[in-house]
Amino acid sequence: MVNIPVDHAYVVPIKRITDESALRHWCGSEACLRYLEFIQLLNESVKNKKNSDECVVSENVQKTLDILHTLDTWIDEIPPFESPQRFGNKAFRVWIERLEKEAEGLISGLLSADRQPAVPELVPYLTGGFGHGIRIDYGSGHELSFVAWLCCLDLLDVFTEQDYQALVTRVFARYLDVVRRLQQVYCLEPAGSHGVWGLDDHQFLPYYWGSAQLLDHPRIKPKSIMQQDIVKHFAKEYLYLGCINYINEVKKGPFHEHSPMLYDISGVPFWAKVNTGMLKMYMAEVLQKFPVVQHLPFGSLLPFEEATNITG
Fold this sequence. Notes:
The chain is 54% helix and 3% strand. By secondary structure, the chain is an all-alpha fold.
């Protein structure tokens, strides 16, 4: 358990992963350890839980949901440019610029008076969580940045263990709504996509946490993703099926052709095996991939220093 004292010296985070040796260092860093611990705790909290299941929605969870609602309304206020554009709609840059301008104020409202000095350290994680304004793209590195922001807030005791379920089934579910809208309204390109051989063009964590939600489900099995009626019916209840449903909406052609990896995983008999496999794949395909993590910055809450208490 990391304790951040009230008089903690915060720093504006900077990018440190500049080459392969820095990438190896990141994999053994305190930042990586804290982040991995956080996503695993969230995974535990949603085992056999639907999105609609009752959970604690604390004041700070509600404030986080309010931030996401605000960002969603900006999409209505910043319509896409009508002139034809080859790669992505440049109105997204306006949306990102607004986020960069407003981020300090949005975050400040989440923090107590004695935690206000942390605001500049938290800003890059939030602003990096929705896509790249110049490249007009979005991918698992942006998802990583948003969840790193939640992790930092957790380190600052903005959230407690009682909030973990809501962070997945309320906050992260709402985040997915926002980034999917951004993708569709501004035609965002997939960032660092592996083409058909990646798990998903944009997301990863909803498959990890989503497989935990389905762990002991009596009827929905990994192979159920091939039954569109089941997927459609339960898309709002389970993150995993929500992702499959979104893929079915935006991709054309046979599922096994456009999403061969997800198709292969549907052959695994149990969700427990999918869940442990997803964490291993996340570490290999996201956390240990230079193009994905090179943009993640490091400060005092997610320090680049070597981890001191590696467990497990």
